[in-house]
Design goal:
Peroxidase, domain 1, 4 strands, 8 helices, alpha+beta, single chain, 2 domains, 180 residues, elongated
Amino acid sequence: MIPSAILGRYARSLADVVFEQNLGEKVTEDLKTYNEIFRAVPDLLEAFHSPAVAREAKEKLLGALLRRYPVDPVSSNFLRVLLEHNRLRYFPQIWEGFLKALNQRNGIVSVQVTAAAPLSEAELESLKQKLSGITGRRIDMQLRIDQNLLGGVVVQIGSMIFDGSIRTQLAAMKRHLSEN
């Protein structure tokens, strides 16, 4: 297993290059496409990692993919570097690290919001503005629906969790009543 520190270096290095060259949007879109390809066909990553597959065959396979799904030269060079250093198997982890590093350079914080039911556009925008005020950064918000919540929302920013769910409030009320 490759230590996450090594994978993080690849992600941060790419984020540095992309940020300096103002290619964030393009490279992010390119790598998102490849992340979807690798998720849809996981055997590809295994083939790139397998010692039973010759290096030349791996290079031809990546070349064929790049011809079929063309990307910016920075993106294709990055994929080739990963192949050359036998790290393409870890693309999903590197992709996640890249997104975090690029967001950090752009002053964006990722927020995971879990709600019992879908939120309206107005509710999402209001929540986004409040979170932006709290963090002092722009917000990249992902909404997840969990029907096990009775109501309210749970917001995760990095390792911090703000639990405003009704279930948690009821549990706190129950503890408080049982203590008295």
